[in-house]
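Project standup — Tuesday

K.O.: blocked on the structure for the chain from last sprint. Re-posting the sequence here as requested.
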Amino acid sequence: MARAGRMLFIAMLVVVAFPDNSSAQEQSYSDQVIFGIKAQAGARYDDVRMCVASPPGAKGGMALEISVFTEIGVTEQISVLVNVPLMRPILFAAAFRMLQFEPEVVLNFRHPQGGDVDIIVGPSLGIALHYGPDYKSGPSGEERGPSFWALGPRIGGYFGLDFKRPGKTFNFQLGLSPYVTPLFSVDDPDNHRGLVAGGTLDATFRFAK
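H.V.: unblocked you, prediction finished:
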């Protein structure tokens, strides 16, 4: 996971360091449908779920995710983005017999700056679904504790810079996504409940339809 984080950071530096210098045209969200890929790297506090990258008893740790999204224009400067994570649901199910799935919807507001970079801000709302052991557990063997179901709302926001690239295949956004999630277990004898709070650095590649 640390290697994946370094690769993500290098990719972001390459895109930012070599921007497209062609004259930027003002972009409009209206009538646009955007598809894209988002890579996220960050950290979180988590006193409910086991973190596969931390030792037993650690409340949280690093967080990596790769997801796909669809962004639909509402007005000239407002869009709705539906983000569906892929990496953690697939990796955790295959390697750790766990589920961590956190889809979300983001309401984006674009603030043009009169150049090649726009500011994007907006709130986000999603749901966190969990199946697996708690943070005291190890990943396997005798250290692994019993699994349980838990869920809760994922409430957050987004602040990003959109590097416009007229005539190119994609736009690139570099952003921050803080969030908080109260988690509650379901049909669980131990009645696990607690709080997840964290944030990620996001690299977003947006492909216009």
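K.O.: great, moving the ticket to review. The CA atoms of residues 56 and 138 lie 5 Å apart. The chain has one domain: 2-17+31-208.
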